[in-house]
## 1
Amino acid sequence: MTPAPVAVNGSLRRLADALPEGRRFLVVAAEETSGLHRIEEQLQTMAIPSAWQPLPGLYVGVVAIRPDSVDRVIGLLNRTTVGRIGVSPPYPDADQLDLGLKLARIALAAATVAEPVKLFDRAPLNMVALADVEVARAVVHLVFGNLDDLAADDRDILLATLAAWSTHDGSAGETAAALYCHPNTVRYRLHRVEERTGRSLTNPRDVAELVFALQARALLGLDS
């Protein structure tokens, strides 16, 4: 489900007001059980100022960063957390922090045990899918609904081929090598995807829809 709104009432702005001027801000949204009770002190030892406070169901921080600080913050969070954490894109001023919290919470929803810290702007398509799960589910059905009458194995082969093609720069040869089949087999499968979905792999807008639907399908567990 889409994360429920949290009433911030200027609290993030007050946190930011306590931080140095002239820096960009990250908003961090962590599960209450993430074990970040010493995170402000730990960041300060790295010369990265931050301010934190609990909100309903969350532990939220505003981090004042320089251009080279983002990866250092993410690295520390990965080493420290025992729960899931979402991180917003950087913002140049405190007026955007409420939006930052919203995006950090969407990133939090995408975090997993295997990848407990999620930065919103490093997986934007995934974040869009999680921003409204029901809409994302509807898009998956709209794009791939005409595959539903295929046998599950047949459908899965077509979608796996499409996924491999999308991650190999649209190269039938590289996709074939990854899937241990002939390039003509890849082309045949992709042609079937085009026929079934009514979308062309030579049309950038159609490709964007197909790739988004693929990622949303995997993220929402619809491919299992």
## 2
Amino acid sequence: MSIQTLPTTPFAGQRPGTSGLRKKVTEFQQPGYLENFVEAIFQTLGEGDGRTLVVGGDGRYFNREAIQTILRMAAAHGVARCLVGRGGILSTPAVSCVIRKHAAFGGIVLSASHNPGGPDGDFGIKYNIGNGGPAPEKITEAIFAHTQALSSYRISDAGLVDLDQLGRTQLENMVVEVIDPVADYSELMARLFDFDAIRALFGRGFRMRFDAMHAVSGPYAKAIIEGMLGAPLGTVVNGEPLEDFGGGHPDPN
């Protein structure tokens, strides 16, 4: 393994908003496009020596490939530890939760929210700061400024990390820790809400249906609603995240 510095040129239009940078998958798949934006994030934040970064997304198309690139770039920029959800899955609220619980300096979230997924759909990337919230405008504008002035980016030439196996892997000098994407978030929900009362409600015969629409909420709903709260199996439907959301639109409205 070694760190490489590769030449690049700026791409127009990489200005993120509070919801990050959202473009068509095909635009993100251009050689250097994702790398440029991630490089701009690291140049804005400074080197990651001794710090922890959280990475995960909603499971849409290109999520896994993007995570592998981000991990290799994080290692090249001196991040000490990277927490990534198993299978590349971490909902946006879960990323915020993990950032705060593990005192990370921030997180990179891969999501285009309710925008359609799949090869012809949309992809998105945003940076959340150490309090778990979206990066403020002064940071997003600094990221954009860097995207317009890049001449190179740094990346490790290491191989792929197994995102489906819980545990730790060494990537250059960085530890990659694949974590249960639901555990920290469900623990937080159990502290915020009266799970005993809700569990008793289901015990009295209350029934509901949760349609996860093959989006990122499925694993959380199954673990919390069916697992921790005792709702009957089958309460959660379409609970497996799919890269194209099963051909549907991930917007319940």
## 3
Amino acid sequence: MSSVKRLVYAVIHFLREQSQMDTFTPDEQESLEVAIQCLETVFKINLEDTHLAPPQHLIEMFMNSIHKNDMLPLSCSLSENVVKADQLKDEGNNHMKEENYGAAVDCYTRAIQLDPNNAVYYCNRAAAHSKLSNYREAIKDCENAIAIDPKYSKAYGRMGLALTSVNKYEEAVTSYQKALDLDPENDSYKSNLKIAEQKLRDMSSPTGTGLSFDMASLINNPAFISMVS
């Protein structure tokens, strides 16, 4: 009953404020006074019962309630999107196990559309793209995952794999080093870092695959011609 009395007290206070405004005719003001008296009589309260006063004015309580109700559909919708996105991620993971990488990409893409701030979905799609040899797309997804979660070691590791696949060994080394900074005991990162470092050394070596030269210039070089004559 105390909650009801507090509500009625707030209503009476509101009606008294309204009755003192110049916007009502004398008859209307009299009607408000009658309404106030009826409420006070029925609920046995009056404005001297200040202990019944709510912490907020009746108008403020009403507006807060309206605002809260307006937000509920959006909150529910967002919650539903998060749940559905997680289900799509699980479907994508199952497709990865079945080596159905195209379907996995589709599931992760739909998950991202529902929940674009989840780094895991981008990172998982990067793995699927790599399996399809879409390395540049994989790199973009890893970058998006890292932008959302800069401490996501798996995103750095998968970006290292994609960078290695497109012969960007120096950048791959940097990615693996960052992955190891975040997850120092990960043997996969350690192994892949060594591979990328070796590839980088091979590229820098005079006998490595990174050495390129102009065969036409060599053949037309007088010193070369005299040497083979």
## 4
Amino acid sequence: MHKTIIILFSLLLASFSSPIIAAGDAEAGQVKSATCMGCHGLAGNSTIPNFPKLAGQGESYLIKQLQYFKSGERNNAMMAGVASLLSEQDMMDIAAYYSIQTTSENSAKGDAETIELGRKIYVGGKMDAQVTACIACHGPQGLGIPTAGFPALSYQHADYTASQLKAFRQYSINEQTGSTDVYRVNAMMNSVAKGLTNEEIDALAQYIAGLH
């Protein structure tokens, strides 16, 4: 009994002495995001197809990506330089700001056949290549699942989406060939992207651009 009381007291003490992780401050994040505007646009709505929109993106996802850029786990020289100057609180503040912004509308620009190909893959996957349907993690409207860390895709630039899918696919190519071309690591997405052709990736990216 005495030992039980000591253990319970120790656990209670530990719970109070554990560090408290501060939440992001969106107002502070707006100020800190000033340097991001050049590439990611006003309120996170990039107008440059190669740079992603950040508006409306999940807070936890944004924080994780900034951490990956800072650690080098995600390879991008420009973002590595930016992230290296950010503290954990800076990352949380910036993520909090962008997560509550409204994503600007976009539209699919491919022909009907291309968009339909993209829709089929997004909704049903590609079973012969063991490609899981995108809808499972990113939702029917492409809003993602913020609590699970699955990013929003809705209205994202097609050029950016295609480039990321090809980077995920490149990981598998590098594994097989020994190439050192730029790639992106995520076990789930590496598995999905390796079964897609360039035509399918471009079709999927166009479909996602108009998804909402």
